[in-house]
Amino acid sequence: MQNAKDTFYLTLRNRLAALNPARTIALAGKQRPGILVEENETPVAQRPPDVFVLRWTGAAVDHWLPAMLETQTCEICYWTRGSDTNLDMDRGKSLTQMDAELASILQPAVTQKLVVSGTSDLPMNTNVFWLDPTYDAAKRDGERLARTATVQVFSLQETLSNGSEEL
Amino acid sequence: MSGGSGSGGGMAVPSGWQTPSAPVMRRLRAYFAPVQRSSGVPAYFDPARAGAFNPSAPPAGWTDLGWIENFARKSSSTISALRSGAPAVVQSQVRQELEATVGFRFLSWGKLQLALAAGSEQMNLLATASGAVAAPSGGTAATAARTAAGSTSTIVQLTSAGNAGLAAGDIVAVDADYTTQTGYVGSGASAAYIPATGIPGGSVDYIRRVTLNVARVIATSGTTTTTLTLEAPLLGGAPSAGLGVQQVIGFVDREGGSFFQEWSALFAAQGEQGDWIFYHYPRLQAMQGAAETMVKLADPLQWVHLDAQFRALPVTDSNDGAQALCFRSYLPAPNNTV
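Predict the joint structure of the above. Result:
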């Protein structure tokens, strides 16, 4: 299941970097594409603005198939308050742009599963695929405008070269 | 539970035996084995000997085709009353017809599942020769490589004549050339029937086009003389020298054809209490053309399951000479009374 989560994140990260290189975030002194996995980062009281934050919630496994089907739920949270130069009055436009970017990087809704490691990512034998996102209504909190999109991500458990089952 | 029943004495212990209840099971698993069509000999499953087995390691000769769904068997045997007298009174019964069918859905799409569900010949889409004319079941195939001596069911040795461009990742069909053979053809399992008149204009590749003797190549070695390492054993076992080896792009079945797949089948379910139910059909013939059922995964994703329907053919039970279509066996849970 972890490989599917890692693959999903890496795919969205790479697609975002290609789609909008200007959407970045500085983390631990490094400039990265503006998308992160919440559980992989230091806990913070407030998520950063203008970046996509992936939060893994639900998980289910169907054991009674030729290969176990894993279903995981990913909430993609993002918020903006617009730009200082426009005195936050472009926050609606900014949120719409993030909606559009998310819709774009989620297509195509399939990618080859990877074993993600620190050095090189090895392609696996199956694909990770997902449903179209469902978008919650935008939430307003002062100058903040936030949205959560939920995506169901599917993957098949693979048997590894040593005969063990993928975790 | 704490608190006694008031009977005094020590703690009650299990009696050691449990009154039997209806089996609770989750899903059936299907195993198939070829029927030797030319001799009419099926593969028999002996539950008294094989008994409970690891579902992933069926008895020798049986191929695991995975979980199935919507298993439904139907007895169409008819029993009639024999009457006599006036008014006519039932005096006895007679079994007039013996007939049974069984249907289910395969949950995976392997070569054998596709072939069994197709009803008739299920062809391999052989890689085509350059400039081949388009044909719905595959155009003229590229020239086959040839097996050399020393092959096993998972290691195929090719002659120095060349490997026909075969590489790791390819699917290959391994079988004889079609020359003037008639009758059932195909290594390991009968894959088609060639009438006495032969196949008009039949290609030398025809048997490899229909054979079930296929596997995925996972590695190659050598330069001019190539060795193919296969992912799974060939159904026909170790190939002899001189057979053709061709790349398979995919599989195709047709609404048509006159051949009926016939296999021995075993459907097994392990109960939650450790009991087992086996349904054994020594001879099953496909009785419908290719069909699928769409099962929703999550909108708009759908599983596509293969529908399969079979008619049971009789065998003679060696214990009493009776003809039978299906054998249902039950192995009770270890601690159940009977």
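Strands of chain A lie at 24-27, 30-33, 35-37, 52-62, 69-80, 110-115, 122-130, 134-135, 139-141, 144-156.
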